[in-house]
């Protein structure tokens, strides 16, 4: 084997190994305690190795024909894994990590400029925007939501113009859903109001309230699990997250940190100038958010989110969440 072939062959082998492990955890339900946790550890390890390898050998891989959208797909898979862990554990650090990776994909423009004739890649980009919108919504990053919505709308229009034989009705419905969701949510939310999440800066610690402190000292009950669901028809929703469940979800959580509550601009700037991430940097740290949660705060209760479940499904989730 020629020396120049070693790096791309090793990279492809790492991709295939990580993808196989990802397929084992992708469809696991997001409820239940520690379900498939050992699989998640293995798939995270596989993607950490893959991500580090592509960072260390980027010039050789680009020379061998590595596409930018392939880097974006790897980062997107890592974002999916982090978001999946957030849904299973309700640990805010996983949600923040997912946001970091999705934001990096957007700012580094990994999917942009990869050729309008590649429908497969265009669908990957559409799915990326949909996932990023969900993460941004849950984190209340309203400015980023607006940026991504415009990106999604422009991409759908571009796809309809360049792939006339393909029906994009499903993606137009996604666009309509998110627009309706943010319009209704904005209408009934005061811009200057406090966040739904319990914030250490704006609220006192629960143990400092006398009657809570007395109750907590007895250790009678602890709120550890919740099932959030909705049954109404024609609800305002995005994906399977309805507006009422979206608000309840945040009311049962702590802010990831006090500083994270501060609003940040959607577009990065350095010295007042927008940063160009179009270069192949690939420098995204998989542990950037490790110190963004306060260990003194109680853990968030685990939450199972169900959209119009059947009775048997509800019973199964209740049983596995115990």
From TrEMBL:
List the molecular function annotations (GO) for this entry. transcription corepressor activity
- GO biological-process terms attached to the record: DNA-templated transcription
Name the domain of life: Eukaryota
A Pfam family annotated for this chain is SCAI
PANTHER family reported for this sequence: PROTEIN SCAI
- What's the protein called, per UniProt? Protein SCAI-like
Which species is listed as the source?
A: Gossypium aridum
């Amino acid at each position: 084997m020629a020396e120049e072939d070693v790096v791309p062959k090793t990279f492809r082998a790492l991709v295939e190994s990580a993808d196989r492990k990802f397929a084992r955890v992708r469809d696991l339900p997001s409820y239940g305690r520690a379900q498939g946790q050992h699989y998640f550890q293995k798939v995270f390890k596989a993607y950490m190795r893959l991500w580090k390898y592509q960072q260390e050998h980027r010039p050789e891989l680009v020379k061998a024909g590595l596409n930018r959208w392939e880097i974006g797909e790897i980062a997107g898979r890592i974002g999916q894994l982090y978001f999946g862990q957030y849904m299973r554990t309700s640990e805010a650090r996983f949600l923040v990590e997912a946001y970091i990776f999705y934001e990096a994909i957007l700012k580094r423009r990994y999917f942009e400029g990869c050729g309008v004739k590649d429908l497969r890649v265009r669908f990957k980009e559409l799915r990326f925007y949909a996932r990023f919108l969900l993460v941004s919504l849950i984190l209340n990053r309203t400015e980023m939501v607006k940026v991504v919505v415009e990106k999604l709308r422009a991409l759908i229009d571009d796809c309809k113009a360049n792939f006339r034989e393909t029906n994009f009705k499903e993606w137009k419905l996604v666009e309509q859903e998110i627009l309706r969701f943010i319009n209704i949510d904005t209408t009934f939310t005061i811009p200057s109001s406090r966040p739904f999440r319990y914030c250490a800066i704006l609220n006192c610690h629960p143990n400092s309230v006398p009657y809570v402190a007395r109750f907590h000292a007895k250790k009678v009950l602890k709120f550890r699990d919740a099932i959030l669901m909705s049954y109404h028809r024609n609800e305002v929703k995005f994906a399977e997250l309805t507006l009422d469940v979206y608000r309840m979800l945040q009311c049962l959580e702590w802010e990831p940190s006090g500083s994270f509550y501060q609003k940040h601009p959607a577009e990065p700037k350095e010295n007042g100038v927008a940063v160009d991430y179009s270069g192949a940097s690939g420098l995204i740290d998989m542990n950037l958010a490790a110190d963004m949660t306060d260990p003194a705060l109680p853990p968030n209760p685990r939450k199972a989110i169900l959209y119009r479940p059947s009775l048997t499904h509800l019973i199964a989730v209740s049983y596995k969440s115990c």
